[in-house]
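Worked example

This section walks through a single chain of length 464. The input is the sequence exactly as stored; nothing has been trimmed or padded.
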Amino acid sequence: MIPIVLCGGSGTRLWPVSRAACPKQFVDLVGESLLAKTLRRLRPLGEPWVVATAESRTLTMRVLKELEIAGEQALFEPVGRNTAPAVALACRWLELAGREDEIAGIFHADHLIADEASFQAACELAVQCAEQGEVVTLGIRPTSPATGYGYIEAESAPFAERGALTAHRSLGFREKPDAETAAKFLAAGNFYWNAGMFLFRVSTMAQHFARLMPELWSSLRGLAADGSNLAEIYATLEAESLDYGVMEHLSQQVVIPCSIGWNDLGSWDEMASLEAPDDADTAASTSIFEQEASGNYLFPHRDRVYGLVGVEDLLVVDTADALLIARKGASQGVKELVEQMRAAGRPEATEHVYEHRPWGGFEILRDTEKFKSKILWVDAGQQLSYQSHRHRSEHWVVVSGHPEVVLNDKVLRPQPGEAVYIPLGAKHRIRNPTTEPVQIVEVQLGTYFGEDDIIRYEDDYDRA
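Given that input, the structure is written out below as tokens.
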């Protein structure tokens, strides 16, 4: 099987930890990024592919490199167009590679699955059904009359069996219901949550695209073998979901009901239903004290001490530059809260104080009118662009590692605890020739500290 991971979305309901510049699938919410956890889960089924947007290329490639997955197995949409174009792009790319007869599975980068053994068993039955020409949906057995998910109605008679699992013909997709309808679905016992996980033969889905979304498929049929005209094609595509464009219109399909500990982590209430964040470093460096307080969930920021007195059932989510406090049960309103911040022009709505770059990244410590300070990290074997600045000088203090600093073509090798001064206008770069990461504290002095005050002369990442 070819697992295909869709890696789009901004995850605004998990603000302030998840933001547009670094969505929840790339954030360490459960001990590692959700994308990394998803790829590890899928690897026993086949070497996974990823479909992501071009703006998340750096974040995506960092995870693939960490897991030693070939970068060639990532497809980058020039702009997000929802799930139908993303799946169609993957199908067309596999066709061009001569893999149209293989079974593919569509999964999401930001979902959590607790029971991986049951998930694998469900996928094995789904492959068995897909080999018969069926499009298969993994239906999640509902645990409550949820109104936030679409449902799939299934026939009672089994279509196929494997161990304790059975597949059934689908009687159709049902829109997100109201509370009364959701309760009826739960009582009926043959309605299942649609988690957006589908398996099919690539050629079968291509035929469905050609019939049900002919304009989309016709456009992608013109994709060059090297993908060089992808941006031109995507400029003509309409945004559409796979559910609405294809799945809801199929006269024949199969659903496999399963209980796999699925959670789409769509809100802080969902996060609170899990165990405490599994980040040993964070847990070790925080302290939470409560006095006459109960039922509270706290997602802490490092190095902070928290005190909760006389409060109950609160969601408290802390980051370096933003704090969220909400009542349990009200966290769906976070999305609207973020929209208010965007309208007010607050960068915290979409940006973090840290940024990932192809060479590593940085975190802003202080940003004032007179100076800006950061901590930089440079990954093993990477280097920043050879650059200069018009409006600022820089002071670098090596915290750890053994970098090389190129200053006006002269190579310096400062040791931990030593400093290097970069005058205004001087050409410079940091290089990490070792196998260990480098950390440097940077202090900028000048009249402007924006990231656009960079003149690049050489760059390994085609930004010069």
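What to look for: The radius of gyration is 25 Å.
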